[in-house]
Design brief:
It contains eight helices and six strands; from the N terminus they run H-E-H-E-H-E-H-H-H-E-H-E-H-E. With about 210 residues, the protein is an alpha/beta fold. Strands 2-1-3 form a three-stranded parallel beta sheet, with helices on both faces. Helix 2 links the parallel strand 1 and strand 2. The protein starts with a helix and ends with a strand.
Length: about 210
C-alpha cells in the first residue's frame, strides 16, 4: 500500500486554514512567518517557493527576506534580531544551507525559541528529547513530523515496533528517532559507518530513509 502523502498534506492544509481563520477572527490578524534565504541556490529557491505557497494557501502572512550571497553574518544576525522583536512575526525560518562564510549554528541559535519554525534551536531540540508525546508546545522539525503523520495514517499499532532510521542528521534522523521513541518503538539509528546495514533493515518493521 502506498501512502498518499499529497492527500494527507491537503487535509492538513484544510484543517490549518480553518484554525487560522478562527485566529484571524479573534485577533484581527493572521499568524506571520518570516522566511530568510541567503544567496541563490536553486534547490533552496524551490523549497522557499513551496513553503511560501503553502503558508499563503492556509492564510499565513509571509514576510520574505531574500539576501545577497555575500551578506555578512553580522547583518543576518541583525535581521533575525529585528524579527525576534517584531510582534507581527510569529515564526522565523532560515533556509539552509547558508553560504560557507556564515556559521549555521550561530544563526539557528539566534532565533528566539518560540519563533523557531524549524525546531532547530537547542532549547527545542532538548524539549523534544524530554517532553511527553502529548506535549502540544513542541516545535518539531517538519520532515520527521511529516513522516510520523504518514505512519499514523496507516492506523497500525506503533508501540513495540522495531524501527530503523538510516541517517543521523540533526534535521531528520535524530528527531525522527525521538518521535518514534515517544511512540514506544524500539529504535535503531544507522549511518555511514554502520556494518551489515542490509541485514539490519531486513529485520525492521519500520524503515525511515533519511539519507
Amino acid at each position: 500500500n502506498i501512502i498518499n502523502g499529497k492527500e494527507l498534506a491537503q487535509n492538513l492544509r484544510n484543517q490549518l486554514k480553518e484554525e487560522i481563520k478562527k485566529i484571524k477572527d479573534n485577533y484581527s490578524r493572521s499568524p506571520g512567518l518570516a522566511v530568510i534565504q541567503v544567496g541563490n541556490v536553486e534547490a533552496s529557491s524551490v523549497y522557499v517557493r513551496a513553503k511560501t505557497k503553502s503558508a499563503k494557501e492556509v492564510g499565513i502572512e509571509v514576510f520574505d527576506h531574500h539576501l545577497e550571497e555575500d551578506t555578512s553574518q553580522e547583518n543576518l544576525l541583525k535581521l533575525i534580531d529585528q524579527l525576534n522583536k517584531d510582534i507581527l512575526v510569529n515564526g522565523i525560518l532560515v533556509q539552509l544551507p547558508l553560504p560557507k562564510h556564515i556559521n549555521e549554528q550561530i544563526i539557528l541559535d539566534s532565533i528566539h525559541p518560540d519563533k523557531d519554525a524549524d525546531g532547530f534551536h537547542p532549547l527545542n531540540v532538548g524539549k523534544l528529547s524530554i517532553a511527553s508525546k502529548n506535549d502540544e508546545n513542541l516545535l518539531i522539525p517538519c520532515t520527521p513530523y511529516g513522516c510520523l503523520i504518514m505512519l499514523k495514517s496507516l492506523r497500525i499499532k506503533l508501540e513495540g515496533k522495531n524501527a530503523i532510521i538510516v541517517g543521523r542528521s540533526n534535521i531528520v534522523g535524530k528527531p525522527m528517532a525521538q518521535l518514534l521513541l515517544k511512540e514506544s518503538c524500539t529504535v535503531t539509528i544507522a549511518h555511514s559507518r554502520t556494518e551489515n546495514l542490509e541485514n539490519i533493515c531486513s529485520q525492521a518493521d519500520i524503515v525511515v530513509a533519511a539519507v
